[in-house]
Each structure stands twice: as structure tokens, then as C-alpha cells.
Design a protein that fits this description.
alpha/beta, Aspartate Aminotransferase, domain 2, Aspartate Aminotransferase, domain 1, seven-stranded mixed beta sheet, three-stranded antiparallel beta sheet, about 40% helix, about 15% strand, globular
């Protein structure tokens, strides 16, 4: 059996090595390492894939979130609502801009932002909602969008883990993650479902004016060379990474299908165990399985993880500390116990290996040892 990895990027690369190598070599031969033609080409292809009117590539997913909030013109003290059970970047950019992060609890089943919790958290200072499409499926966007309309709020989707996921509205319309709110933000970190070979990110919007503002902000606030009309940043996707992404984009649906097949195997093998919960599927969204995250409810999660490690199986805890309990984000408004679902999840979640290259022998070995560990 091949060594089990949390993410097997090497084997994925080998499958398309000639195409990747040729794309990279073309950039090297042309020596347009910044703002080469491949960047714009990738942006146009991602627009076609997602249905977004505008895709603006940037340096990474965190900067995509920061630029999105800058483009909305939010002011210090404005409140931005985000889930407390997520990666730190979501709150980090809010704090860096002098805005006020307001965290809310999540649903136990999908582990995504609770619309009811968002509704309760709105104050006169609230200006934006940042739903995170966690682990590969969309947050329940229709009620969140309705709440935003009722209170005149912006919606910035964090779709770093869910590119390619599709959400079905009540009227039957299907929209891709990142295209439903005012702005969508994604990451192309190597381990993502669509990952480059370094850092990368992008913003998506259907609003022409916002798209223009995003482009200006990402380019030092510059409209004409050396004419800076607003405060900006330097954030761009380099040409080699764009070439890699443009090569991999046609494979994204196949990558998603491979992840879904692995998830189906996990479901069948583990679904009957009363000591754990397999990932719950949203009624509204497809799941692209950036992560396959169990909730270990009838055993010691850390003991299970240790047993898997001893068997050569990596497993990760995403995320061990909710935002409101992080030292850097301590706030007198919040204390332990305020967000019971997120706090319970932090104690019991465990993500199993999930990538495009898992084979049946590996999946059988992983699930056998998970069951052995939880029933020990």
C-alpha cells in the first residue's frame, strides 16, 4: 500500500506532469513573471467556470478578503459578522482594517454559519456578513441573503474551501459558491481543491463598479501609472501560478468527483458507527469535500487521532480553538460557553485524509483503523 498522506499533491502532479511542465516552461521562456498573459487568461476561464461576471486574481485568499472589505468602503468601528468556528483569516482581516469582528455560532450538522445566530447579532453598527463555506459545502445562503437585504448589509463569501460547490435557491436557480453575495473570495493554496504551486487567490463579483474598485485597490490604489486615487495594496497572482491554475482548472470537476467518491466510501464504512457522526450534507448545496470531517461523539477524539497516527494515518483537527477563545481576539463581549456548538465541535472534530488520489486499499485501511480506534 502507498503511504497515506493528508493531501497527495505529488501524485496529482504526476498525472498531468507534461501539461504542467509545459505551461511553466512557457512562462519562463517568455519571462513575463508578473502580469503575464496567463493571469488574464486564467481569470477569463474561471469566470466561465463559476458564472461570475468578474474574477480578479490576487496574491492569496487572506488578501482577497482584506481587499473585499476595503472595496466596500467600511470604516473603523463598523461591525462585520463571521462564524466563530473557522480559520483565523476571516476575523484577522476584519481586525487589521480597524473593523469590529462580531462572531456567531454555527449549526451542529453542517458546521456552517447559523442564519438565526446572524439575525440575533445585528446591531445598528453592522455593515457586512462574511459566511464561510466550511469544508466544501455552502453555508445556507438564501436566508443570509434575505437578512442582508432586510438590513442593507453587504455579503462577502469566503469560498476558499468550496470552489465548485453549487447552491440551489428556492426558485430552482443554481449558483456557484462565491457568486451569490456582493463579493466572493477564494484561495488557491496548494492543498485547496483548485490549488497552485505557491500562494494565490481571487475575488469574484457581478458588480462592475466593485470589480473596478477591487482592481484599483489590488494595484496600489493606482488608476494611471503613479497616480494613486485611493489607499491600496500590492496583491497579484504571479504568472507561473496562473499558468498552473489554468492547466488544472479543466480537471476541477474530475477532482471534485474523486473527492466525492472517497467521501462516499467513508460514509458507507463509517456511517453505522454510533460513536461518530459522518459529515452532514446540506439540503441546498453540493459538497466538494475539501475536508472530510467527522465528529467523534462517543470516544476521546485525541486518543483516536493518536491511534491513527500510530497506524500511519494522518488526521487533522480543523479547528481546535474557536475565534472567540483565541488569545489575539479576546473580547469582553465573549466568554467560554457563549457559543456552545462551536466549542463542542472544537473538542470533537477530526478530519480524515481527503484528496484526489485516495485508492480503495487506502480507504479500507483508514476506515478499519478509525472503527478500531473509536471502539477501543
Amino acid at each position: 500500500m502507498r503511504e497515506i498522506q493528508m493531501v497527495d499533491l505529488q501524485r496529482q502532479y504526476q498525472r498531468i506532469k507534461p501539461e504542467i511542465d509545459a505551461a511553466i516552461q512557457k512562462v519562463i521562456d517568455g519571462a513575463a513573471f508578473v502580469k503575464g498573459a496567463e493571469v488574464e487568461q486564467f481569470a477569463r476561464h474561471l469566470e466561465a467556470y463559476t458564472g461570475a461576471k468578474h474574477v480578479i486574481p490576487v496574491a492569496n485568499g487572506t488578501e482577497a478578503l482584506q481587499i473585499a472589505l476595503m472595496a466596500l468602503g467600511l470604516k473603523p468601528g463598523d461591525e462585520v459578522i463571521t462564524p466563530t468556528f473557522t480559520f483565523i483569516a476571516t476575523a484577522e482581516v476584519v481586525a487589521l482594517l480597524g473593523l469590529t469582528p462580531v462572531v456567531v455560532d454555527v449549526d451542529w450538522g453542517t458546521m456552517n454559519m447559523s442564519a438565526e445566530a446572524v439575525a440575533r447579532a445585528i446591531t445598528p453598527k453592522t455593515k457586512a456578513i462574511v459566511p464561510v463555506h466550511l469544508f466544501g459545502q455552502c453555508a445556507d445562503m438564501e436566508p443570509l441573503l434575505r437578512i442582508a437585504r432586510e438590513h442593507n448589509l453587504y455579503v462577502v463569501e469566503d469560498t476558499a474551501q468550496a470552489i465548485g460547490a453549487r447552491y440551489t435557491m428556492g426558485d430552482g436557480r443554481t449558483m456557484q459558491a462565491g457568486t451569490m453575495g456582493d463579493i466572493g473570495c477564494t484561495s488557491f493554496f496548494p492543498s485547496k481543491n483548485l490549488g497552485c504551486y505557491g500562494d494565490g487567490g481571487a475575488l469574484m463579483t457581478n458588480d462592475d463598479a466593485l470589480a473596478q474598485k477591487i482592481r484599483i485597490i489590488a494595484n496600489h490604489g493606482m488608476t494611471i501609472r503613479y497616480h494613486h486615487d485611493m489607499i491600496g495594496v500590492n496583491s497579484r497572482l504571479d504568472t507561473i501560478q496562473a499558468a498552473v491554475l489554468d492547466t488544472k482548472l479543466p480537471y476541477l470537476d474530475a477532482y471534485i468527483a474523486a473527492r466525492q467518491r472517497a467521501a462516499a466510501y467513508y460514509d458507507k464504512a463509517l456511517g453505522g458507527c454510533s460513536r461518530l457522526d459522518i459529515p452532514e450534507r446540506s439540503r441546498h448545496s453540493t459538497h466538494v469535500f475539501h475536508q472530510y470531517t467527522l465528529r467523534i461523539t462517543g470516544a476521546d477524539r485525541d486518543a483516536v487521532r493518536q491511534a491513527l497516527s500510530e497506524a500511519g494515518i494522518p488526521a487533522m483537527v480543523y479547528y481546535p480553538i474557536p475565534l472567540h477563545l483565541q488569545k489575539a481576539y479576546q473580547d469582553p463581549r465573549y466568554k467560554a460557553g457563549d457559543f456552545p456548538v462551536a466549542e463542542r465541535l472544537a473538542q470533537c472534530v477530526l478530519s480524515l485524509p481527503m484528496h484526489t488520489e485516495l485508492d480503495e486499499e487506502q480507504l479500507a485501511y483508514i476506515t478499519e483503523h478509525v472503527l478500531r480506534a473509536v471502539n477501543a
